[in-house]
Write the structure tokens for this entry.
Amino acid sequence: MSEATEQTGRLIGEPGGGPGPGSSITDILRAWGRLFARQREGTILVVTIALLLYFGLSNASSFVSQANAINLFSSFAAPIIIIAIGEVMLLICGEIDLSAGFIYCFAPFMMFFMNVYFGVPALLSIIVALLFGLVAGFINGFITVTLGVPSFITTLGTGFILAGLALTLSHAEPKTIPPATITIGKYLATDGWAQFIWAVALVAIFHIVLTRTRWGLYTISTGGNQLGAREAGINVGRIKYGNFMITGVLSALVGLQVAFYTNTIDPLAGQYQPMFYSVTAAVIGGTAMLGGSGTILGAFFGAIALATLIDGFDVQGINANSVQIVFGAAILIAMVANVQLARVRERGRT
Amino acid sequence: MTPEAQEPAATAAATSGDVLRAEHISKHFGAVTALVDINLRLGRSEVLGLLGDNGAGKSTLIKIICGFQLPDTGRLIVNGQEVTLKSVDQARSLGIDAVYQDLALINQLSVYHNMFLKRERLRGPLLNNGSMRETARRYLNEMGINIPSVDVPVASLSGGQRQAIAIARAVYSSNVNILLLDEPLAAMGAKEAAIILDLVRDLKQRGDVSIIMIAHNYGQAMEVCDRINLIQHGEITLDKLTKDTSVAELNDIVVEEYRRALQERQRSA
């Protein structure tokens, strides 16, 4: 695990993957090949590139365009990526957050209530909405860590509560974005690549947090050997609290972004789908559901692979009813490929 | 209870220079009594062997001394000061560290990350992996521990290698002066056990570390320990210098214990 993260770190450190100037194309290809074989992220990157190439070649006129690229990366991939960052951290320390999509749904209402009902300035009401995500994460942590309820159940419950609150407080009616917040919304979401840029920046930050800081090390330790981590003096509860809170803030951020992007605050936005997509992205990217290992870069590519499927089928105009069949099959194929290649890799190492 | 227990044999050696005293320690887990009334002392740079049957309370005692659990009653005196150890970190700050039976290693992390777990070297907010890797390599070399590389995950190592790394972690990465080893030789081949016994001898020679070592194999314990304490049913029933006792004597006591347990079974049947 650590060896893998080490090499990931090097991959980030040296864009180009090693070979110096002047090396022939075969050398470069061979170096990249070695890199892929060793990286857990390698498989999903190959799958993602293959999907992009497939849709690009078969629908060149409509798929390969600035507008579609923005659609794919910014509006489809970015929300999955950002929530997946939180879910990866949680899965590594042995927990999960099913309420992410409901925090996402409620956060923009928080902003709306603050700004429109209480006259709180735009920026401050956005910050309050993000803080709401933090608090929601804290409550998930409290119920899971301090009261000892499995996070699957905890977040199932808090998710329902948030869904009900959003419907009740909004009288089940969508709201429009408060005019005062629109300028800030441009930086968060509405300006072309904004969402994707946020996603990339957050991936970069949390990749470093996971592979290069104490927090990351303790998150892996907590999921890898909880008793051992505790005996070593790691405050396991604090790590879990923290990762629930990270997921809460990131979910709130995505909720705000989607509200700005769609120009509406919908009490039925989010729900379970963002969480399912994010966990899927995490898992096909190489994060184990058992805790102790995972990769944020892998989830990043996994999310782009999912977004490519969603967008690609959209562009191809495949019947909406049959899309889900293909979608499910694609997930399973990606998963099987990932698991099998991981086995091959494991065999190669020993 | 043997007559020796009332008259601790080793008083001559150390009352003055005790680094650790545990007095009247007791501990219950629900209805189960783990420790009854433990009185234990550890002299400076002494190696104390703690022997006893499974479930006699050895591990519980170790966990109390290293701050992982609080005793129900009794007191701990570390370097002449009475202390209440509320956390592993606090015990560590007083120079007490333990190597547990389950080792507290994280399988998914590399050898060097494990060696520096909870005492990471940082460069700003980031881990200084280079420095930790180099130092871990040097420490393991000094201790004569052979592993393929400090970069490999701990999961890929043998039992002896894992034990050695856990001990190296306790010894090198803090200024430990009281080291608790919970069955460091369990499930180990003779060759691997020899590495660990050598390691304990080296530490004794350094003179700045006092060690309590839980052991099952009396022969191995007598090899390196200065003094032997025997725990039976949560009480220390024998306290003798190694030179004043023998494997035979210890065996006799334990055989006697088995015999009594057997008789009780037959009576109740």
Remarks:
- Chain A has 16 helices and two strands.
- Residues 1-22 of chain A have pLDDT under 50 and may be disordered.
- Residues 320-349 of chain A form the longest helix (30 residues).
